[in-house]
Model the fold of this input.
Amino acid sequence: MNDARRKSALPFSGDTHANMRSGIPQPLTAKKQTNRMSLAGSALRNPYPAPPSTNPRNSIFRSQNNNPLLNSTSKQHLGRTPSNNTRRVSLWASGSGTTPMPSSSQSQKDPRPIRERPFQNKERSEILNFCHDLGLDISMAQLLNIQRKDYRVIFEFLVELLDPCYPIDSTEKFEDTFIPALKTLGYPYAHSIDTKWLAAVGSPHTWPHLLGVLHWLVEMCKMKERYSASEHATLQDPANVPEEFQDPFDRRALAFDYYGKCYAIWLDHIDEFEEPNEQLEDRYAKKNQGVQKDVEVKGQQLDAAKIECDKLTTSAAPVSLLEGENKTRVSDAEKMQIVLQKWEARRNKLSVAIATEKADLVKKEEYLTTLKSEQEQLDDVVKEQNLSPEEASRMTTDYEMLTRNIEDLKQRIADTEKTVMSLEVSLTNRISGTEETLHTYNVGLSTLGLLPPLSPPDVNLTLELNTASSDPDQLLTGSDIRKVVKPTLNSIAESRRSMRAEVENERIRVDNDIEQLTLECDTVEDEITQVEKQVAAVNEQAVDLHNAAQRDALASSESARQLEQMVANARTAAIANGMGAKSRLHQLQFDYREQVERVNRLKDETVRAIIKSSSDIAEFRGEVAKKLRELRECAEMD
Done:
């Protein structure tokens, strides 16, 4: 059973790869165990594509966090091939098992100008600079006059940089490992290279092709270096995985790191992976924090949008409000036009009265001038006449009498003028008061909405003061006050009083209905409170029933365990004592089945009770919601 659990805990296992070595790196703390053999398959896989990168070159001698494709090489082996006792496992397939190049690549020709001297100089300089940067001691003279051993050292150095796990055996012939290595690394022009060229590496007809091989390896190493420094998701580096990620490669990187840690723990004879589980759970919890915050923000925005939508759906449409306001404004504009027309007519009447008064003043000035001329003429006539003393005395007496009469008349005229002035002032004040009263009356009509047009009978209740008329009956223009205006206003007042009484009665009725609805709401709330108490009691009963079922289940489990122990003991006693204990064993098995059935029956009863309680709660909530909807509809209808 322990072996089966250990096999199931392996992250990679399969019958087809049982005889292959594990591609998962073994930790330094793991010891060799005879009973812990890896069932994982080979780690052979195609190299990752190298995305373009503009990052500056970093050292490729850097750990890639357990990524076997990017394991760094050791600086102790720079410039020389590994020893014979060093055996490395390559992620690439071996030369004997290499899949042949496709047929389309067999006919592909090298498009590079490898035979041109400028291009060769460029290749040599790039190879020399790259090798110097990585500590390989070569010179330009060696590249200009290349030897077989120098070419092999550079070739194996570049292959080891490109694939640190590729098996390089210095005891084998260079001709036997050269072409398979190129095909394994995917050199596209390996078909055009002959192994016989390695005998004379620096010859003019072979050196361009072999130099092109070295230049291609250098370019691939540079591409690998840029790819390693790009922090791309396909690097499968857990350190590069952001807190919030959606890329499948990021998930694979975390999964691979988790499998590796679990595998290392499993090799130490530990079957519980608590630390890797906690690390992985914490990592995904960090990933979910941003999503949860976004969900909370979206939920708040959704609630605000729902509240705004409810406000918009329950309130009246803005168009209807604007239409009502527009109607009010149009009615006010019509009333204002009527008022303006009245004020215009009044202004015209005052202008006519002022013009009439000015004409009368001109006539009176002309009359006064005429009287003055007549008096002068009379004075001249008196001077020209020669009268006797008696006539003069008589005329003097008459003159004095006439003078006194004239003074009396003047006094009377002055008194009359004073009276007229006082009467004019009084008249003016009364006219002003009357105009103010009429203005207040017209404003009151406008406020009460009694300006024309009125509903039938169409009666014009407006009044205007005509001060130019001498007839008292014609001082007020418009409808007759006694016969038309006063009866109409009385009828309107009576109708308004009746309407007010009806509105007051309706208000009292609505208040009574609201009080009744309030009492009903209080009653319903009391019922809801009682039902909630009942629901709480039912929930407590369900919890108690669930706890009792759990206790019974635990007791039944303990009884079953004891029965299993007794069965095991009985089986041991039966083996020791013979067939005499079979009946006891059957009895214990029957008791065990009964206990199991009892446990299952209690579980089913608990589940049914919980489901029944949940359904009762749901039905109660539905009934409460239905009552509330009915109450709301009733309130809206009222």
In short: The longest strand covers residues 463-465.
